[in-house]
Specification:
Distance between the termini: 60 Å
Mean pLDDT: 95
Helix content: under 10%
Strand order of the largest sheet: 14-15-22-21-17-18
Number of strands: 22
Largest sheet: 6 strands, mixed
CATH topology of the largest domain: Sulfite Oxidase, Chain A, domain 2
CATH superfamily of the largest domain: Oxidoreductase, molybdopterin-binding domain
Structural class: mainly beta
Order of helices and strands: HEEHEEHEEHEEEEHEEEEEEEEEEEE
Shape: globular
């Protein structure tokens, strides 16, 4: 279905164009994690970043069912109680929106105007997906698994339920779960109650919320959220490359105290302990570097202990500050060799942008 009242195809901001009313509306519905919440190993539920494409669906738990079908021998239909009765597993996972950092690009892609705050780490509890797929009996021709949520709306003129697919091998990974709890409590409505998909290491678009259907496919999925959205491309008519795993990022808890509007930090001269977190969807972060001179020179930070494979890692660095103006940066390197860039190649949708955070500090 199309509608003349629906939003236009994705565009980029004109030179000098400020945040639009539509972007402001999105920013008011969704929210990022305050940088000071990096102090928590697990992000409190209310501080975890949130992106909702359409509306939070109203779901009656007694009527809700998960249906698993498609290219399987034995289709399944399960209640929430039946899923809770299955073997449970918990995963501590850092989730990040694929559009994190979009508003810092020039020209700015018009969409949810994230800066660097679309992230959070939670302990997700649920039942592993792979045994369910095995129980249903996968067809030898199976190539992908599609996941459909109850949230429904229009995007770029196309009416749809939010749906995403994973390659079969990714769906069968042992750490992928169907989660019904977040930080030890039932999923809040905004985070996908009663059931959501959690795919450790992948950007947030893969973590389908308000899950109602799983379909095993013998062909590549052609739904909007895979084929059109979440693509790395420069021109509007490019096919582009799909967004998949999270690229490395380090974030810092800004030192000192902020100006209300500009968020510039003010700090006293002397020694400051700079702290933060770093993560990657490609494996553990093995190095974090800190610059206190705008990226001219770098020093290695001390890393905290490794936790779960896809959870963030703490870091710290001591900085002796004398009066002046500073720009602080931190960058991460993961175990497979991805290095977080200081500047970011531009792409039309503003996806997978992991350029370094910049923290302005006035000392004196």
């Amino acid at each position: 279905m199309t509608s003349t009242e629906a939003s236009a195809p994705a565009r980029v901001a004109d030179p000098g164009e400020g945040i639009t009313a539509e972007e402001l509306q999105l920013a008011a519905r969704n929210h990022g994690m305050p940088a000071e919440a990096l102090r928590y190993d697990l992000t409190p539920v209310g501080l975890h970043y949130l992106l909702i494409h359409y509306d939070i669906p109203a779901i009656a738990p007694q009527e809700w069912r998960l249906r698993l079908g498609g290219a399987v021998d034995r289709p399944l239909e399960l209640t929430l109680d039946e899923l809770r009765a299955r073997p449970a597993a918990s995963r501590t996972v850092t989730l990040e929106c694929a559009g994190n950092g979009r508003a810092r690009l020039e020209p700015r892609p018009i969409s949810q105007p994230w800066l660097v705050d679309a992230v959070g780490t939670a302990e997700w509890t649920g039942t592993p997906l792979a045994p369910l797929l095995a129980e249903a009996g996968l067809s030898p021709d199976a190539v992908e698994v599609a996941f459909t949520g109850a949230d429904h709306g229009i995007e770029r003129g196309i009416e749809q339920d939010y749906a995403r697919a994973l390659p079969l091998a990714a769906a069968l990974a042992e750490d992928v779960i169907l989660a019904y709890e977040m930080n030890g409590v039932p999923l809040p409505p905004q985070h996908g109650y009663p059931l959501r998909l959690v795919v450790p290491g992948w950007y947030g678009m893969a973590q389908v919320k308000w899950l109602t259907g799983i379909e095993v496919l013998d062909r590549p999925f052609e739904g909007f959220q895979n084929a059109v959205a979440y693509r790395l491309k420069v021109e509007a008519d490019d096919v582009g490359e799909p967004v998949t795993r999270i690229l490395p990022r380090a974030l810092m808890i800004p030192p000192g105290y902020p100006d209300f509007m500009s968020r510039t930090r003010f700090a006293k001269p002397g020694e400051h302990l700079l702290t933060g977190r770093a993560w990657s969807g490609w494996g553990p972060v093995d190095r974090v570097e800190v610059s206190t001179d705008g990226g001219l020179t770098w020093a290695d930070a001390d890393l905290g202990p490794l936790g779960d494979a896809y959870a963030w890692r703490s870091w710290r660095h001591r900085w002796t500050a004398v009066p002046g103006r500073y720009e602080l940066l931190a960058r991460a390197t993961d175990r497979v060799g991805h290095v977080q860039p200081v500047d970011q190649p531009w792409n039309r949708q503003g996806m997978a942008n992991n350029m370094t955070q910049r923290v302005a500090v006035v000392v004196g």
